[in-house]
Write a structure and sequence with these properties.
209 residues; five-stranded antiparallel β-sheet; three-stranded antiparallel β-sheet
């Protein structure tokens, strides 16, 4: 059986790997014929990798907080604005022409970006995971994923067509992995509305004879 690459593809796994490598490489410097400068250089490389990964995690945490603030403002201030607009519509001088000009006349099938919530369904498909969804008014969805127990989610993909097919990277033991997924709707490159429900899925690699 062909061995899988030792260099992890997932950022979380790579950070753990780099941390282990930089802390232990010095122990084997003599056996490997390495100079102190070479050890120091390899540790510096690992630190750069770890810092780059941590920067993304920090940015995602900040983005999550910013999105929460945005949604709260839209919900609160939007509610107040809609009340004011309702009063405008009851004014004696209000006409449909004014309503069309201000964009305050609803359509027969109303789409509300503030409350839009995608629905996803996760299923096995051989050695792939398929994620099914219906856009229902959005351009695409952003799919986020993490291994159950991890602190942070990562953006897996922006999917425009259902089903989205994904092949996870498994470790050498091919132990089943418990994944968690959720999604946001996207319009013109901006996430809108509410996150989908969290979907858990236990994935195991299919072994070919």
């Amino acid at each position: 059986m062909r061995k899988k690459p030792f260099f992890p593809m997932l950022a979380t796994d790579l950070a753990v790997w780099a941390y282990n490598y930089k802390n232990k490489i010095g122990n084997f410097a003599s056996s490997l014929g390495m100079t102190l400068e070479e050890v120091t250089a390899e540790i510096a490389i690992c630190n750069k990798i770890i810092d780059a990964i941590n920067d993304v995690f920090a940015a995602k945490a900040s983005l999550k907080s910013t999105l929460k603030t945005r949604n709260s403002i839209i919900a609160t201030e939007g509610f107040d604005l809609r009340k004011v607009i309702k009063r405008h519509k009851s004014s004696a001088g209000y006409t449909d022409a004014i309503g069309f000009a201000l964009g305050i006349i609803g359509s027969d099938s109303e789409f509300n970006p503030s409350t839009y919530q995608p629905v996803i369904k996760v299923e096995p498909f051989g050695n792939l995971i398929t994620i099914r969804f219906a856009k229902k008014g959005v351009d695409s969805i952003n799919i986020y994923q993490r291994k159950k127990g991890d602190d942070s989610f990562r953006l897996l993909a922006r999917a425009t067509k259902s089903p989205f097919k994904y092949q996870p990277t498994m470790d050498a033991t091919e132990t089943p992995v418990h994944f968690e997924f959720f999604a946001f709707g996207v319009i013109k490159d901006e996430e809108i509305g509410l996150p989908s429900n969290l979907v858990s899925f236990l994935f195991s690699q299919q072994i070919e004879d």
